[in-house]
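job 3f2a | input accepted
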Amino acid sequence: MARVERRRKPAPVARRSRRRRAPAAAVGSTDVLDLFTRTTDGVMAVDPACRVILWNRAAESVLGYSAAEVLGRACHDVVRGRDAVGNLFCHPHCSVLTMARRDEMAHAYDLTTQGKDGAERRLNVSTVLVPGAGGNIVVHLFRDVTAARRERHPEAVPGGDGNGAPSASSPADAPGQLTAREREILCLMARGEGTQAMARRLFISTATVRNHTQSILTKLAVHSRLEAVALAFRSGII
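job 3f2a | predicted structure (238 res):
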């Protein structure tokens, strides 16, 4: 009897999965924050609830507090900064944190604080926003500029002449440097209006407001809107 050969069925071809291969692990906010430990500037990172979540060795060197003494505390309780005329700058609703919640970047600014040793220090502070799950994490980078600021504006730093009046070389003695539009924006700053509110009121773009703001800060040789307003009131610009 003839043998009947059965044809083998071809092996099934493996189907390619339609799933996309998982991308390389995304860099999370924790990984980004780790990068800020590799700088000679002091670094303090603050979560949306105002708690300090990063304090690097340079920060410890500048202010004297260890990470163990700072982490988990409210940032305003740690720094307790004040502006050039002594007004409280650091508080639960400070302008920097308010801007961060609105996704707005703050310009660099100066503030006066005290170290653990009780000595006053003038800090120049810049901020970086790092997106987080519950909102932006605000990373403050700061350095001690007490000596440098004393040389430029002795009345505005610890150890200055203490009379609160602008020096002869202060830009505030020449208020004519500001244009009419810049004076207008400076007045709105003094009322506490933000960039978008000023843009709507003046019928200009937010980019134009920021350009005018930067020009004001440059002409007055200050580093924040708060400093600009304080200097404007002291010198009679507004």
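job 3f2a | The domain at 30-162 is CATH 3.30.450.20 (Beta-Lactamase).
job 3f2a | closed
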